UniProtKB/TrEMBL annotation:
Listed name of the protein: Uncharacterized protein
Length: 553
């Protein structure tokens, strides 16, 4: 199979040049471990090598090899490139990438690399490609194309470590047919090599392979080979490894769902809880966000991604390390998506607000909204809310923010649930500009949330909402309500059996406030007996139900 792939590369390149580039990796190339096994070159250190190593900056290095760049050996060329790479990573010893790429000495160095590259091992070619890419050499340049062609010609010798590196670097290059063809070949190569070249002991490489499998189309069997290899290590995972596994398993594109995947998820969860004090809080927020996103994608199927113990552990970490209002509300923002409240962390946030009111008064809108939403879920006693309410009302977010892009219709409803009235914001919500903007984004969601606010204002306040809301909006809501007369729930059957049958029960009744009542029964006032329905019993308006001497129940 390996030979066949090598022989048939050209048709693959020609046939797939126009294929869409695969999804780019979200991980930084600078943070990954790209140190592949060193070359077998074992010559004694030359005078040129000594000169290269003595240079302390990129400028000194280029000046030092100015006269010898055309005549460097393969070993010295790689040494010079590696030294240049190290200097460029250090701000105090680097120069601009533009200055390097346009430098005549660097141009000579590239010519030396092209001349020596056919004699280099694949590992050295890939390292040279990494360095040139970091420096900023264009992927359509002669030297880059030359190195990419060398990799193409040795594709069967690409190791899994090479594959991981190339999968991260190729998306960063300019889009060319050769780059695209290499990207298409990598998943095929993984599926061929996974059974024979996988290193069961290298956990970091296994987690990288799992991430690669999530981002590319590979067979379920290939994925399970990686999953089963990771399961062998149980919970013996570092915080970085457990994080990588959780991110991969919670990726939307991860399709496999079986007992082994759940076992790996549990192992990674336990390892994360055990090592959570070593985790960066920003990375932790991202992990929580991914788990919750996966859970919400299909709660019945992805129930294992909802781990209350992990969520509580994350909350405790914030409190015990006194990470402050902003970090706490950022984590709470993720919890709000599922209505999760850790009262220990919420009390910590409230105490922070009491001590430093300006955190809320001058705070960023994201943090303020997250705090307000958490209060609506917590259902705190009114005494606990009084001081908080006074601070919220002073916040710049409510007094000075006039942005139409914010979801004021949702925020207003949450504030009302806390007993906070903001007529200025209500005026914004029912303004034509606000309506027009949000109706274009997600009409159904916006209309339903706005009518929810309308219902609350009508019942709980003296605000003249009837003069503000559009009749067309209310009409749209009535159309959106699930009023299918053929839809029968177990409750319908029970109600009908209890009160005399179908002819005694109105179904899907709507009110002036756009509520939908599943069942309505009319009783005689004197006998308290249900009254049979004359006429249509489906999809009627509450105020249109004939009463006579009866009373609606």
């Amino acid at each position: 199979m390996l030979l066949r792939i090598g022989c048939r590369w050209s048709p693959i390149v020609n046939g797939l040049r126009k294929s869409q580039i695969l999804q780019q990796s979200a991980r930084s190339m600078l943070c990954m471990d790209t140190r592949i096994a060193p070359s077998n070159i074992t010559k004694d250190e030359s005078d040129v090598t000594t000169i290269i190593k003595s240079a302390s900056t990129s400028s000194e290095l280029l000046q030092a090899i100015k006269n010898d760049a055309n005549r460097l050996s393969a070993e010295d060329t790689l040494t010079a490139l590696t030294a240049l790479f190290e200097h460029q990573k250090n701000a105090s010893t680097s120069i601009s990438r533009e200055n390097i790429v346009s430098d005549r000495t660097f141009e000579k160095l590239c010519r030396s690399l092209k001349r020596n590259s056919p004699k280099m091992e694949l590992n050295d070619v890939i390292n040279a490609l990494k360095i040139l890419s970091y420096i900023g050499t264009g992927s359509k340049s002669e030297i880059m194309l030359s190195l990419l062609h060398l990799i193409k010609n040795q594709i069967n010798d690409v190791s899994l470590a090479h594959l991981i590196f190339l999968s991260k670097m190729l998306p960063r290059l300019d889009r060319t047919p050769l780059v695209e063809a290499l990207q298409i070949a990598l998943p095929l190569l993984l599926q061929i090599q996974i059974g024979t070249k996988i290193d069961y002991e290298n956990v970091s490489e296994l987690t990288e392979l799992l991430h690669f499998a999530c981002e590319h189309r590979v067979s379920d069997q290939c994925v399970m080979n990686i999953v089963n290899s990771l399961i062998l290590h149980g919970e013996d995972l570092s915080v970085e490894q457990s994080r990588s596994i959780l991110w991969s398993l919670s990726d939307r594109s991860f399709r496999v769902n079986n007992a082994n995947c759940e076992k790996l998820l549990e192992n990674a969860m336990r390892a994360m809880k055990r090592n959570i004090n070593r985790e960066d809080h920003k990375e932790l927020n991202t992990t929580v966000d991914r788990l919750i996103f996966k859970y919400l994608d299909d709660p019945s199927k992805n129930v294992k991604f909802y781990d209350e113990f992990l969520f509580n552990t994350c909350s405790d970490l914030v409190v015990e390390n006194d990470l402050g209002f902003e970090n706490a509300t950022c984590l709470q923002k993720e919890f709000n998506k599922i209505g999760f409240i850790n009262f220990k962390m919420l009390n910590y946030i409230i105490k922070e607000v009491y001590k430093y009111p300006d955190l809320l008064i001058e705070g960023h809108q994201t943090n303020v909204i997250a705090f307000i939403t958490s209060l609506t879920y917590a259902n705190l006693k009114s005494d606990d809310l009084q001081k908080i309410k006074s601070i919220i009302l002073k916040s710049n977010f409510l007094t000075k923010n006039h942005s139409l892009k914010l979801q004021w219709h949702r925020i207003s409803t949450e504030l009302l649930s806390l007993g906070i009235e903001c007529p200025r914001i209500w005026d914004i919500v029912f303004s034509s500009h606000f309506m027009k903007l949000h109706l274009q984004k997600n009409k159904q969601k916006f209309v339903l949330r706005t009518v929810q606010l309308y219902q609350a204002l009508k019942v709980l306040t003296d605000y003249n909402v009837d003069d503000k809301i559009s009749e067309n909006l209310l009409a749209d809501v009535l159309k959106m309500l699930p009023t299918d007369s053929k839809s029968i729930t177990p409750l319908h059957k029970c109600v009908e059996a209890a009160f005399g049958g179908e002819s005694f029960v109105y179904r899907n009744v709507t009110t002036e406030l756009c509520h939908l009542l599943d069942n309505v029964i009319v009783f005689d006032k004197s006998t308290l007996e249900p009254i049979p329905i004359e006429g249509d019993r489906f999809n009627v308006r509450y105020n249109d139900i004939p009463l006579g001497s009866a009373t609606k129940q």
